[in-house]
Design a protein that fits this description.
single chain; 3 helices; 3 strands; globular
Length: 95
């Protein structure tokens, strides 16, 4: 299985990537193993992922997320999941 993922740091910066080993890759980002965009900007938290049967599928989805339409799609998905979580929290608080 292959994964496309979105990470977020405390400053709200998003990072999009793809990998075959999701847990290991997130750990590597947080340990600053990779020089580049995520280095020294963590800690990173997984906020979204999708699973694919092929590396090509995951890489194509990562490329999509880095386009204008892909960023808009992610914003919609992430806002909806935040809204659902907020609603669930309000319901739990009311009980």
């Amino acid at each position: 299985m292959y994964y496309t993922y979105v990470l977020k740091n405390p400053k709200g910066i998003l990072y999009k990537g793809s990998t075959e080993h999701l847990g290991k890759r997130i750990s590597q980002h947080n340990k600053n193993i990779f020089p580049g965009y995520t280095h020294g900007k963590g800690p990173w938290t997984l906020i979204y992922s999708e699973t694919f049967n092929t590396r090509r599928g995951a890489e194509d989805r990562e490329s999509f997320f880095k386009t204008g339409k892909g960023r808009t799609y992610l914003k919609t998905i992430l806002n909806n999941s935040t809204s659902q979580t907020d609603s669930e929290n309000r319901r739990q608080s009311a009980e």
